[in-house]
Amino acid sequence: MAKDPFTTRYEDLPEILPVFPLSQVILLPGGRLPLNVFEPRYLALVQAALARDRLFGMIQPVDEEAGGDAPPLYSVGSVGRIVHFSETDARQMFVVLHGVCRFRVRAEEPGEEGFRRLNVDYAPFREDVAVPGGGVLDASREHIAQVLKRYVEAHALEVDLRALESLSLPSLVVTLSMALPFEAPEKQALLEAPTLERRYAALCALMEMGAMGGAAGDAPQ
């Protein structure tokens, strides 16, 4: 049987993965992440991914100020597949990544053309590929909608709440976890949540704290 060019199978995930470290940005399985790429090393990363399997990882630095060009990284990130790209007149690239699977970092490998590469393990998150977005969620849509409304109003965010009504509840949790402006440790807590139910609970708690003026870094475990 011919390989489906639009699907990434678990067995196709590379052990050595080029990564794009970016603070306060996470990619969840089933989510879509737009990126405007302009640094030469990350333009090289995108070109290398397009020439191979269209896959690269997103991972957050623990501290952007430490380590110079190679700050220490969190131990968990996500691999995504390029599903759209275009070149701009400003010699930049616009890329959309589709989240495939989270990974745990084993070790860092020698870099390539200025970008970093990691030896990664997908096994702890194998279900991400089988059930993108986490599957069925038995939770209250009304509750998360009310909490989101308070959070958006407290932070004066421009969010089209009516447009979000068309999303399934699991897709809504993925979208909000990726899009809302939480601090890096809070984003990481959402990324590493072991189940969709735990991510839903953490997301609601973070929005509640944010609506009440809670301090960044108070992410629930």
TrEMBL record:
Residues 17-211 form the Lon N-terminal domain. PROSITE patterns: LON_N (PS51787). Transmembrane segments: none annotated. SUPFAM superfamilies: PUA domain-like. It comes from the Bacteria. This is Peptidase S16, lon-like protein.
